[in-house]
Design goal:
Length: 226
């Protein structure tokens, strides 16, 4: 898979390194000469250019990319790169970094963004995830379809503990993606039984989050505590 990353700072280089280890073809683009540090990511292609300019993106052959990641420290730049990647070059997947949470509402399909990653929001979500059991934590927002990646740790004595995944009446527009059990990462199987302490990752429509949280609570909705 060919991936272009706009922004060769610490974030862009870190992403490039991870993707290269997974066997992907990486192009790093930055307009600042001091940011072009080929020796730090020697396996990547490098381009000294302004990613907001059509001529630069032509030179980068963006139409050949499967994914574009707008990873600069400037939200305006990331939005422009995302819009150009999607509308001018038809890039199938555009991921954009949100630096200021106040701008998060702009990072949607209108600007060509498929996935918006807000570092401050993600950090706060991970803190919540580390200390919250039984509460739904939103980790990532997907622009298309108004869906989110959410996590919930199944609390002790949860109503669904011991229930087979295939027997759960999951809410509409909700998909269980992964079960993290201790050090194991499990691809959900209909015959797998849920256990208290399981970290459950879902892709869910925002409108279904409350319903999902109720389903996974200690008592089923509508049951009495007596």
């Amino acid at each position: 898979m060919r991936v272009a990353i706009a922004g060769a700072g610490a974030v862009g280089r870190s992403i490039a390194g991870e993707l290269l280890e997974n066997g992907h073809e990486i192009l790093l683009i930055d307009k600042t000469p001091t940011a072009i540090s080929v020796e730090r990511v020697p396996q990547a292609e490098w381009l000294l250019a302004d990613a907001c300019e059509i001529t630069s993106l032509d030179e980068a052959a963006l139409q050949r990319c499967n994914v574009v990641i707008a990873a600069t420290g400037d939200d305006k730049v990331n939005l422009v790169v995302s819009l150009l990647a999607k509308t001018e070059y038809g890039v199938p997947r555009v991921v954009a970094r949100v630096n200021n949470p106040k701008n998060e509402w702009l990072f949607n399909e209108s600007w060509g963004v498929d996935v918006a990653v807000s570092t401050p929001r993600l950090m706060s979500a991970l803190v919540e995830e580390a200390v919250s059991v039984g509460d739904l934590v939103r980790l990532l927002r997907f622009s298309h379809g108004d869906a989110n990646l959410v996590e919930l740790t199944l609390p002790p004595e949860a109503a669904l503990a011991g229930t087979r995944v295939g027997d759960v009446d999951w809410p509409e527009d909700t998909s269980l993606v992964t079960i993290i059990r201790g050090t194991r990462v499990l691809a959900p199987n209909p015959d797998d039984a849920l256990e208290a302490g399981d970290e459950l990752l879902f892709v869910a429509a925002q409108a279904r989050e409350e319903q999902l949280e109720d389903l996974l609570s200690v008592r089923r909705p509508g049951t009495s505590g007596d």
